[in-house]
Amino acid sequence: MKKIFLLVSICLVTVSGFCSVVGDSAIEYNNSGKKKYDQANYKGAIADYNKALQIDSNMYEAYNNRGLAEASMNEFNKAMVDYNKALALNPKMSVAYNNRGLLKYKLGKLSDAIADYTTSISLNGEDALPYSNRGLAEAGLRNDSAARKDYDKALAINPDMAIAYNNRGMLEYQARDFDNALKDFNQGIKLNPNNSNFYSNRGIVEYYKDDSTSALADYGKAISLNPQNREAYNNRGLQEYKMGRYKDAIADYDMAISMKQNDMIAYQNRALCKEAMGDADGAAKDYAKYHELKGDK
Q1: Which CATH number covers residue 42?
Q2: Which long-range contacts (CB under 8 A, 24 or more apart) does 155-163 make?
Q3: Which of the two residues, 42 and 2, has the higher pLDDT score?
Q4: If pLDDT is split at 50, 70 and 90, which confidence band does 23 have?
């Protein structure tokens, strides 16, 4: 089974202070927290946002920013409280609606996420980010036409938005429009050549277009950029299986399973390889594990 990454457009959604104040001001702590957040030092960022709010408990920017850091640490309840507080203090804070929408998306509340993105857009219709994010939620609800319109709008506002090309490519892939999907993945990679997921996604399209050389190259690139990209190992295994390279495929499935012990698809695919090699016992064990994880009786 192929899996294509569905990427949420998270970028530039923290808010800095707008003026300079001498001393240990709330603005300085907020700005320091933003720098730490950008460095993925989420605990340090939260500590700075806490100090900012101790000085100014009405600083809505700090609530929004602390929510982002908390969400990055999977502290979703705390993040929701902070986004709600930011919006209570400033109901016109478009970026906070976008961020709360992202959180609702992560929680599987797609319709609620769309409502927040729509409010964000109504407050700032020139920001490409909520359009791209709303497209992602619409795609999750299989509202493909609405999703397409949102991706197109995001790219009309910001033609250099790599992730919107990737997400539109995903939509085209699901519609089996492989040629246009490939064009969008190519453009996304051109704009952001260091995103491991983009290469893995393009490799899937190349798999279906029977371009095994390009698919293997893209999976290899994805893994070189992120050796923990489990889906790239899984997908490369599928390509190798298709080519009759069963030992190589098993090695890739082994890697995927080492990263996620309950990866039932990897067990199923590895069983197919073992079966093709005549390893009936090994195949039976992997099939048994697959059915156990799937919950079959």
Answers
A1: 1.25.40.10
A2: 155/128, 157/126, 157/127, 157/128, 157/131, 158/128, 160/191, 161/9, 161/128, 161/132, 161/191, 162/187, 162/188, 162/189, 162/191, 162/192, 162/195, 162/198, 163/7, 163/9, 163/11, 163/132, 163/188, 163/192
A3: 42
A4: very low
